[in-house]
């Protein structure tokens, strides 16, 4: 039985991951932590305030609860990181090295997400291979590549069981993303229900990888449970479910809301980030080494997103 500490647990992934992990491993075996206190969160199960830039505090909580795994999610996303590059470096890299150090000291299994942002304009754009050129041009991407290498280093040098995936844009109706480049693919569903219209800050024809949150959560659990002898790669596996541009979302939404209208007002900062990322990544290493398989495509995801967002907004 695992005992897991989750950092950044109130963010977009953490809000759902903690619930999923508790349903598998038991409420008491998942310690939710975040920089912000939450009454609601502390009523659901073990919850502690942890600032990941404070290594001593991560150590204290990990030791007190005798966890055997850290899932380190606390990080700034791409668009926010571009606004505050130095803060992003401090949080994204400082938090990561602290969580890795605690994992080394206490001999813990370790997961942290990388991203399609770890690729750059010189990376092959279509079917981006698992092992390829990674020269990102954003602070977020620099953090993600350095993070992948750092996790490999802790595995090779200290034997820490580090594992990770390169997440595409994650789409969910539970918690909103904050400060990402792919956030339009969540906003579009809310606006489809509220206004029957959406203005995209990403230009028509800009393809990026996307995935519905249930597939992302399954991937984390599956990778962490995977037989280590089968893992050729560790940090981090390409995984994707959907390669789509804004019009693909509009067309999928129009199957349920025919009057839905998509217009464009491009944000140059986020567009530049999107243009530097792949159109579609190749998940075959994850499929071969630990059986990754997404259940959702754009159509079944859209149906569920529209139903759930409608219920939520009632
Ligand atoms: C972002 O847009 O920054 C994230 C990501 C793809 O890593 N959703």
Automatic annotation (TrEMBL):
GO molecular function, one term: L-threonine 3-dehydrogenase activity
Family: Belongs to the NAD(P)-dependent epimerase/dehydratase family.
Domain NAD-dependent epimerase/dehydratase: 4-239
Native source organism of the sequence: Ornithinibacillus hominis
A Pfam family: Epimerase
Record-linked Gene3D superfamilies: NAD(P)-binding Rossmann-like Domain
Top-rank lineage group of the source organism: Bacteria
Protein name in the entry: NAD-dependent epimerase/dehydratase family protein
Matching SUPFAM superfamilies: NAD(P)-binding Rossmann-fold domains
Classification via InterPro entries: Epimerase_deHydtase, NAD(P)-bd_dom_sf, NAD(P)_epim/dehydratase
Signal sequence coordinates: none
Listed GO biological process terms: L-threonine catabolic process
């Amino acid at each position: 039985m695992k005992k897991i500490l989750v950092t950044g647990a109130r963010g977009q992934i953490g809000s759902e991951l903690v619930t999923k992990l508790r349903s598998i491993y038991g409420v008491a075996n998942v310690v939710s932590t975040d920089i912000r206190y939450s009454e609601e969160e502390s009523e659901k199960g073990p919850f502690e305030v942890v600032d990941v830039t404070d290594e001593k505090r991560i150590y204290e909580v990990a030791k007190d609860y005798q966890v055997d795994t850290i899932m380190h999610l606390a990080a700034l996303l791409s668009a926010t990181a571009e606004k505050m590059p130095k803060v992003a470096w401090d949080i994204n890299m400082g938090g990561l090295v602290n969580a890795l150090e605690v994992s080394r000291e206490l001999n813990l299994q370790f997961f942290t997400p990388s991203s399609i942002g770890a690729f750059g304009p010189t990376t092959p754009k279509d079917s981006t291979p698992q092992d390829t050129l990674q020269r990102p041009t954003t602070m977020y991407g620099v953090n993600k590549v350095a993070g992948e290498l750092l996790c490999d280093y802790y595995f090779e040098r200290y034997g820490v069981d580090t594992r990770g995936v390169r997440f595409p844009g994650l789409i969910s109706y539970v918690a909103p993303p904050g400060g990402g480049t792919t956030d339009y693919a969540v906003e579009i569903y809310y606006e489809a229900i509220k206004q029957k219209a959406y203005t995209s800050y990403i230009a028509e024809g800009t393809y990026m990888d996307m995935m519905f949150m249930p597939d992302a959560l399954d991937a984390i659990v599956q990778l962490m449970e995977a037989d280590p002898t089968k893992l050729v790669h560790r940090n981090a596996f390409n995984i994707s479910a959907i390669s789509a541009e804004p019009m693909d979302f509009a067309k999928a939404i129009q199957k349920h809301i025919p009057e839905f209208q998509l217009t464009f007002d491009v944000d140059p900062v986020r567009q530049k980030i999107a243009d530097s990322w792949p159109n579609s990544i190749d998940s075959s290493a994850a499929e071969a080494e630990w059986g990754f398989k997404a259940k959702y495509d754009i159509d079944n995801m859209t149906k569920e997103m529209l139903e759930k967002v409608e219920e939520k907004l009632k």
